[in-house]
Amino acid sequence: LIHFYKRRVQMSRFVAFSHVLRLPRLASLNVRKCSTKGVSKESVFFDPSVQSLLLKLQGRDHEKVFRTRKLGVNPDKPSYQFMTQQELEEAQEEVEQKMTRKLNMPPVMEARKDTLQVLEVDPLLQGFDTSKYVFTDITFGVPDRQRIVVVRDTCGSLRTSTWQEHDRINNVYYPREGRRHYEPALFEPANLEAILGPDKYEYVLDSNCLQYEPDHPTHVRTLGLVHSHISARGEFDCLLSTRHYGPMVFNLCWTRQQDELLVHLVVRDRLEEAVETVAVYLRLHPDCALANTKDLPGLSDQELLRRFCKVEAVKSGKISMALNRLVEEKEQKEQLDRKSTRLNSSHLCNL
């Protein structure tokens, strides 16, 4: 009934038991639950209305989603076959489902904080050993984040594990392919600044999701650095039709850095996406001045963006100039179309 594993790593011992003497009953202990004031970032991110907007914004470009990538493996050879109409529709539905899975967004969460809880203090165990003992539930099928891990310190106190200890234990018993047991140098801010570019954004974000949990401080810091880098250089479309585009929009709106994204969308005449980005902003900041506007539902796309510039935007002049330029270009195009139509009509009449 007892599975024992003992290993000395950095002057600590890891001991895994199914049932251990002197270990109090932990069935009702939830070591991951922590009280937060107000609404947390992850609860807003998983709101159905926010998810719907982000999924609509991220795009579904088949060529980009299913493009050939250098993963170090031999690609599958293409196969060709004749299909009936029904079989073709079933194959297309299967492709859509596969693309939906590929575009499943990683969660955006706040950086976690250690909340240690002392479960027991036994003075008789003080000085019993020079190393700590770590007890963990190794039951198969338990999610890593919910796995119970407690530590007996050399002073005799039994406490819940820190996040770092929890991650190390999970990596010992249930290692994930590609996840390192050390902090990769890639995620150092100085190294990221040196390598980030249009062809590296997705790679860095994929590696970030593989190496760290969504609420790991390094994961949260890397997200902020990459999104700020993209915003500063206007390379938003590098993440379009990837699983990282929605979290980028969410993070920019959460930190009120969405102005450059709005300028990018307006310049490219993607007003509908700009309005949906504003909708995400309003979902994240329901107490802002724009959200309290009474005539908000009746505004057109341009009016809504101009109202946003006036009330919420930091770079209001830049967004307004992009809007004015777009309106002028559309008016000039309409005038040219009308002139071309009149010339064609007069030419037909002369014939």
In words, what does this structure look like?
The protein is mainly alpha-helical and 351 residues long. It is 46% helix and 6% strand. The chain has 13 helices and 6 strands. It has a 6-stranded mixed sheet with strand order 1-2-4-5-6-3, with helices on one face. A hairpin with a 4-residue loop joins strand 5 and strand 6. The longest helix has 35 residues. The protein starts with 7 loop residues before the first strand and ends with a helix.
Beta strand count: 6
What is the CA-based Rg, rounded?
Answer: 27 Å
**Strands in their spatial order, largest beta sheet:** 1-2-4-5-6-3
Largest sheet: 6 strands, mixed
Poorly predicted runs = 1-37
The oligomerization state is: single chain
Helix/strand order, N-terminal first = EEHHHHEEEEHHHHHHHHH
The structure class reads mainly alpha
Strand content: 5-15%
Instruction: Write down the overall geometry.
Output: elongated
In helices, the fraction of residues equals 40-55%
Number of helices: 13
Mean pLDDT: 84
- Report how far apart the termini are: 99 Å
Summarize this structure as a short list of keywords or feature phrases.
351 residues, mainly alpha, six-stranded mixed β-sheet, 6 strands, disordered N terminus
